[in-house]
Amino acid sequence: MRLSPHHDGAARRFPSARRRVTAAVAVCVAGLVLSGPATAVPERAAAAPAAGLPYQDASLPVADRVNDLLSRMTLDDKLGQMTQIEKDALVPRSDLAAYRIGSVLSGGDSTVSPNNAQTWADTYDSLQQTALATPLGIPVIYGIDAVHGHNAVRGATLYPHNIGLGATRDPALVQRVGRAVAEEISGTGIDWDFAPCLCVARDVRWGRTYESYGESPELPSAMTTFVTGLQGDTLGAGPASVLATAKHYLGDGGTTAGVDQGDTQLSEAELRAIHLPPFKEAVRRGVGSVMLSYSRWNGVRSHADRYLVTDVLKGELGFTGFVVSDWAAVDQLDGQSGFTGAEISTAVNAGVDMVMVPHDYKKFLGLLRGEVTAGRIPQARIDDANRRILTKKFQLGLFEHPLTDRSFTATVGSAAHRSLARQAVRESQVLLKNDGGVLPLAKSARLFVAGKSADDIGNQSGGWTVGWQGRSGPVTDGTTVLQGIRAAVTDPSQVTYDRYGNGIDSGYTAAVAVVGETPYAEGRGDRPGGLGLDQEDLGTLARLKASGVPVVVVLVSGRPLDITAQLPDWEALLASWLPGTEGAGVSDVLFGDYAPTGKLPMSWMRGASQEPVNDGDGKTPLFPYGYGLTYGNAPEPTPTPTPTPTPTPSPGACTATFRTASSWQGGYQAEVTVENTGSGALTGWSVDWDLAGATVTSLWNGTLTTAQGRATVRNAAFDGALSPGARATFGFTATGTAGTPTPHCAGT
Ligand code: GLC
């Protein structure tokens, strides 16, 4: 990865003289290749430009450099910039120059051999040298899914997946994670991270639930700090600046029944209220790219939705970066396999700037060229796409420092990054049950550890781990939960492990069962048929229960699971999510070196049939959004199976302030801040106001009732308690135009 144009750190590594010589030699090579393949071969290139042209001058404004470069580009140069291909599809490698391809990616299973940081950096540099050998020397931009660390690279630091980071409620931590991930990505040369996923997962049967920071928009919105971590405050302004991607636009987490790549059937008001806010915040933070969603909104595929992509994202939100399609998503538009010129036109005219083809680039470029020359894609659209892409390449500093900054290569899997990851694991743990104060465990305790995920770094890392789907077993370097436990106790010989619980007896202080899910990614993780524990886990838990020893369950999963029936047999339950390589962060909480602070990012259903269940929808989950215990609490009883009646609020001193967050034709979104203005603590509050004929269409962080034209919102389980001066917020969307109601607030 390069340093910024303003940073001379890397200049010592790549003296411009050496780069110019390399480029000159390669131009001769490129000239030979141009007479190669028949279809879609770019026009014969002009002679290599002399150095010192305006677009090569880093002291000029980026817009001037873009204009100058565009004026020198042929149509084929421009079409190549809009083309992204899988590294392994590039055969021969010289086609990168011959077809002027502007971007390369490594998909989930794309790797290098041996799989280590140095080999990734060498691979990147070799590709970049090929790209620089084109007549205009436009550098390639290389993208990868580093969605919980630089997860393609064996030995990289892996952090909790987003669902765990959402549980931390710590945006500043997430920003630090983004910065650390950017350093490891930069150490391998790569420029662009297809992250963060800003999906708002509304149905945990969805296989990508773990890629979501939370079910209510304010949580993914808060965690867009990851964008700033990756890019820096300004893209390219500091070392190890990596282009971020807000994905998947729009509504991927809202499909009916949580079907991956399904249909999100919502009104515009609901779509805007629930799924748009995180993208709005990412744009405000200057995110450089947006990846579209495979899913549909009311039957229209996002990749074909000009209204959402061009009018809303680029127009209304003012997004000035570039839009990239998802992997072979253009192929899906006509419902047939493969892609056609018509599908390419539909996607590009909807607002796609770069197409993740990702394989048959010759066919793609031939069809794309045909659509432009036939006038079905305006030249202005091609120029706009190029302007967006080139602007990011200039801002990243790719033209000045196109090769790996090897000073970051040693950060891959570094002790400092692993320490940060361990902190993230600690903060992500959510304590859901702790009867009798069985936790924290004493380090002198005699413990029996069981479960398929107790000693399995693959299970605790989940999908997108040294392979698209991830897998069980020793897939990479790190610390398992069991290793963390053994390192924490006074005498490791007091810790017995058997995966299945065989050999346990009543002589143990406690049993720790680490159970849950094995790795999966995307649609392969969809669970339409139920979310219960698997037979192995149930058998292990039964053995532990039969011993009479208190059972502490550590649930390693990408989402809430259906454990209602088993919960009474457990003294404690810790939701661990998918912690990544630093399993010692879990034992830090088990032994009380860190008291749990995590809060549920998703409502925990009573059973799969209750899905979708989300905060404010009027349903009563097993554990509500925002729930989480810590140590020192009075023992909390497991939530009662029937909803507790909301107490009639007695007068208490609180105020409610309305703020219109956004509005559109026929609807608006409001955020309401409730403040305890009295001298005593509140245990609950309610806010009511005259609807003036409006209808509330969705609401979060509270419970809504309406009567006689008035709306009443009562606190959610997690935000009722307010000390003097403390505040809570809830939000809603409504039809009509935003008013300035005079709310009445009552505290209890
Ligand atoms: C996948 C995913 C997307 C990822 C892309 C490239 O199918 O939907 O999140 O960034 O392909 O790997």
From TrEMBL:
Keywords: Carbohydrate metabolism, Glycosidase, Hydrolase, Polysaccharide degradation, Signal
Region described as Disordered: spans on this chain: 633-653
PROSITE patterns hit by this protein: CBM2, GLYCOSYL_HYDROL_F3
Record's signal peptide: 1-40
EC number: 3.2.1.21
Domain CBM2: 647-748
Catalytic reaction equation(s): Hydrolysis of terminal, non-reducing beta-D-glucosyl residues with release of beta-D-glucose
Biased composition (Pro residues): 636-650
GO molecular function, one term: hydrolase activity
Entry similarity comment: Belongs to the glycosyl hydrolase 3 family.
Protein name: beta-glucosidase
Originating organism: Streptomyces achromogenes
